[in-house]
Write a structure and sequence with these properties.
The chain is α+β, with helices and mostly antiparallel strands and 361 residues long. It has two domains: 228 residues, P-loop containing nucleotide triphosphate hydrolases (Rossmann fold, 3-Layer(aba) Sandwich); 123 residues, RNA polymerase II/Efflux pump adaptor protein, barrel-sandwich hybrid domain (OB fold (Dihydrolipoamide Acetyltransferase, E2P)). It is 23% helix and 37% strand. The protein contains eight helices and 20 strands. Strands 6-7-8-3-9-10 form a six-stranded mixed sheet, sandwiched between helices. The mean pLDDT is 90.
């Protein structure tokens, strides 16, 4: 199966006066598993349907394998789509659901027999070919929808939140199976989700959208460790944000007065945020939490705080710590016998400067 690229060039799409996609530019590599991540209303599903041909943009170019397909109807684009609802025919068997696209294309019976058998074998449903959709579990219905898409041999696979109807444990299993099948087939895949965990565990790269604008594109670890703005920082994982004012720059150092904390010095980043106001960002797991009178490691920036609440989440306990006028999330790994900090306890939080990201306010 040929691996193809998908590219958006200055794509704009509006519904009346509402601009849903705003000058979108993306380069999805051949054979890549690419995720579109964002909240409801961000434009991610609209962009997916645009690639499928279900809606049309007013300006820009949409290229598949280097060819602008903007004017092509969906059935000419060699694109397969799996919907959130699976959209299986309830009166047809698994076999007939998978064969449906080939029958509509008037493929000969011998080819249909071979391709449907291969598709059902690929998704592990060969023994359930004669069952109806209502006789299958949610995960099995998902596999039928995938087989129905694979059987037409699309160049691009589009997935519109296909795991959202499954329970948590089945979602984990299905996303692993989905990724394994995508790797086996080498299909260029675009996966829409609002679930950051799904995107980060499956995607080679992902784009974060907000109100029709691509905020950042990159590998999951890059977006997690090096967000370009506060929206990405907050949407990809949990992030602490402290507002501050730049007091001065000296060589490779940046002096910042943090609201409610005081003066702190950070290493000057390669591209420091412009302006007097900045946001100091860091992840909950990068903080150390110690009793108030504990010895302090000089490598850390220490901040006094008070425990306001805690949640036991199994692998770790997440504390809400009051620091000055702001609350910070702090994750402490859990192990048997560990004594929790009580609500109201005075603590010290240690922040390693290398884990800080300075963002524009």
């Amino acid at each position: 199966m040929k691996k193809v690229s998908v590219q958006c060039r200055n794509v704009r799409l509006s519904y009346g006066p509402v601009e849903v996609l705003k000058n979108v530019n993306l380069d999805i590599e051949p054979g890549e598993f690419f995720a579109l991540l964002g909240p409801s209303g961000s434009g991610k599903s609209t962009l997916l349907r645009l690639i499928a041909g279900f809606n049309r943009h007013q300006s820009g170019e949409l290229l598949i394998d280097g060819v602008d397909v903007s004017a092509q109807p969906p059935w000419q684009r060699q694109v397969g789509m799996v919907f959130q609802s699976y959209a299986l025919w309830p009166h047809l068997s698994v076999w007939d659901n998978v064969a449906f696209g080939l029958v509509e294309r008037r493929v000969d019976k011998a080819t249909i027999q071979r391709k449907v058998s291969e598709a059902l074998e690929l998704v592990g449903l060969a023994t359930l070919a004669r069952r109806k959709p209502n006789q299958l579990s949610g995960g099995q219905q998902q596999r039928v929808a995938l087989a129905r898409t694979f059987v037409i041999e699309p160049q691009v696979l589009l997935l519109d939140e296909p795991l959202s109807n499954l329970d948590k444990s089945l979602r984990v299993q299905m996303r692993q199976e989905l990724l394994a099948m995508q790797r086996r087939l080498g299909l260029t895949t675009v996966f829409v989700t609002h679930d950051q965990e799904e995107a980060m565990t499956t995607a080679d790269r992902m784009a974060v959208l907000d109100r029709g604008v691509v905020q950042q594109v990159g590998a999951p670890a890059t977006l997690y460790d090096y967000p370009v703005n506060t929206f990405v920082a907050n949407f990809v994982g949990t992030m602490n944000l402290l507002n501050g004012r730049v007091r001065g720059r000296s060589g490779h150092s940046l002096a910042v007065e943090l609201d409610g904390v005081g003066d702190v010095t950070f290493a000057l980043p390669a591209e420091p945020p412009l302006g007097e106001r900045v946001v100091v960002s860091f992840r909950p797991h990068t903080l150390r939490i110690e009793v108030a009178d504990a010895a302090r490691d000089a490598r850390y920036i220490w901040m006094p705080g008070t425990v306001e609440a805690s949640e036991f989440l199994g692998e770790f306990t997440r504390y809400r710590i009051r620091v000055g006028a702001q609350n910070l999330a702090v994750d402490q790994p859990h192990y048997a016998g560990l004594t929790k900090f009580a609500v109201g306890a005075a603590v010290m939080l240690g922040l390693e400067p290398t884990q800080v990201r300075l963002l524009a306010a």
